[in-house]
Amino acid sequence: MEEILEPSDPRELTTEPRYMRGLTDAQREAVETLDGPLLVLAGAGTGKTRVLTTRIAHILATRHIWPSRILAVTFTNRAASEMQERIVAMTGEDVAGLWIGTFHAMSARILRRHAELVGLRPDFTILDQDDQTRLVKQVLDAEQVDPKRWPPRVVRAAIERFKDRGLSPEQLKPSDIGDLVDGRIGDIYCMYQERLGTLNSADFGDLILQCVRLLSENPDILATYHDRFDYILVDEYQDSNVAQYLWLRLLAQGRRNICCVGDDDQAIYSWRGAEVGNILRFEKDFEGAHVVRLERNYRSTQPILTVASTMIAHNRDRLGKVLWTDVQDGAPVQVCVVENGDDEARFVCSEIANLQRRGASLDEIAILVRAGFQMLLFEEHLLQEQIPYRVYGGPRFFERQEIRDAIAYMRVIARPGDDLALERIINVPRRGIGDATLQKLRAFARARSVPLCDAVLDLVETEEISARPRQQLRNLMADFARWRADAETGGHVELVQMVLDESGYTDMWLKASTPDAPGRLENLKELVSTLNDFGSLAEFLEHVSLVMDRERRDTGEMVSLMTLHAAKGLEFAHVFLPGWEEEIFPNKRALADGGNRALEEERRLAYVGLTRAKQHVRISRAVSRRVFNQWLAGVESRFLRELPAEHVETIVRTRRHGGTGWGGGGFDSNSNGGRGPGYRRLRAGARRSRETPLLRSGSREPIEVGTRIFHEKFGYGTVTADDDGRLDVSFEKAGDKKVMKEFVRPA
Asked: Distance (Å, rounded) from C-alpha 185 to C-alpha 169?
């Protein structure tokens, strides 16, 4: 009989599954750690999606459980679909029973099974935001709340915030209520919930909040799901809000096999209700939790990762990790100092053109801004240079709702016969002019073959329209007549600002509490500021028409223009990061509202921007910048001072150094690139731009607190404080400003 030899190592009998091949040690640890709570700290570009999908495939392959015993939660339907497709590709099996989807989708699935326990029927309707707003309006009308003082969308947004924080009407405290709806928000919230129940409806916040209530109040139901789910996996845990956190805590109390994947350094959505504290306290919430750090990056070069890691290390509220890569070579992060915002946009477009000439794909180039209002200058210059671009995550500047509305007002002033423009804003902001009134106006205009504006003027003198809309239309036509008269005698910039204010349009967005309202107001301010570049309103409107026509013709490869918030999860070979100045980035409004917590989130946003780049990062800042029609001294962002000098190369391009134009050499660290004498290049690791004055003092006298100084833009003033060369100055005419010491001289 032939002897059967036993292998010395049992592993020799097995072949490693295909799905495990190529994993790093850290990734393998995250996949194979199946028992107990696990936190996977996945840095940018470290392959977290592969870890999540491989972990599910490994659970199915080794634990031999049904897919229906796994709950995988994502933040978008697209992420859920991609994850399911990858799992199928890895395992080659049908995983249709897998519970995978968004927080809201999974909560709705649970709620429909037990709807009666929270006062609903299984066929309940999920309301969208428009339906929610209308329902809130019904409640406000019933309570005789003035909709002008408390617009329904503002009240709806307040209720949404309560639900994101896991607060039912009964749980509100006086500090939560404040002066919302004159202190009546608790009652309004309660009545809104009662109306939802009567209609057998739930809003998106209810899907999670009611699910939390269901599981909290029914231990037997909770035990059922503890038994059902052997494993729970969560993606992008740093973006979860309080209600989602409570939901997960309840479901994970059973077997405690919960795996949360996220990156505390990329927590940038607090304005949506996300709570970074959820991921920071994971080890406290789940005693004995194991933490795996994914730090090997597959996207960027080492200089980029070192710069990003050094900067984010200044945050205190973080768990800590340091990204690294096998790609040790790479260009330093480049910082360009320019004269103003126009020069910055011109510089970026010039560099993009250079990259394109050297064979770079426009699809691999991105301009990432902190705030939407910054986009306009770049859009203008990209169009001038005939560089195709797309605005990612939203419309282009002139396509934005608030900009189209403002331009519609201008069009009606300049061209009273522009029916489309008048129809757009005839009830914006709301004036009580409904569809029935508008249809009557259209029919009258067609019958008389006159413009809609003339039809309004005729009909308001009759009884054809009911009293309230008739008076509103009469007032609106009187306003347009006055504005046209002002247009003939005054400046068009002041006119547009007056129109936005007197029409109530600015006030409409001031009262809106939606997360995008402040950004819309900033866009309107930038629009008014842009009018300075045109000689008349007619000239501006013609420019807009040409711009929109050119935009529609763009096809093929395009540069991506977007905010830093929209860029998360994306990657590009070449990334431009403009506007790194105090008050722009970090954002002044964010710091005013959130203090140090907001500063740390701003720094995380800068980290996200840096880590989008695969090959090159170009940061830029302006010496001065016109923001919302005011010129500001460009104090360099504190984030620039946190970058490691040995991996930063600084280029100074200002008129103070004699520069006269933009060259065509592009970024080439080995040459001047054909630029004019205005370029001053600092080698990587040289002294930073804040240590190399752009404009030296005209005197050797020391500038100290109390010194009277002169600034070429703001005039004479007195130094009140000195923070490492950043001076607080009380100017005689310009008021209190922050300026750099290099830009003043003793008076």
From this structure: 9
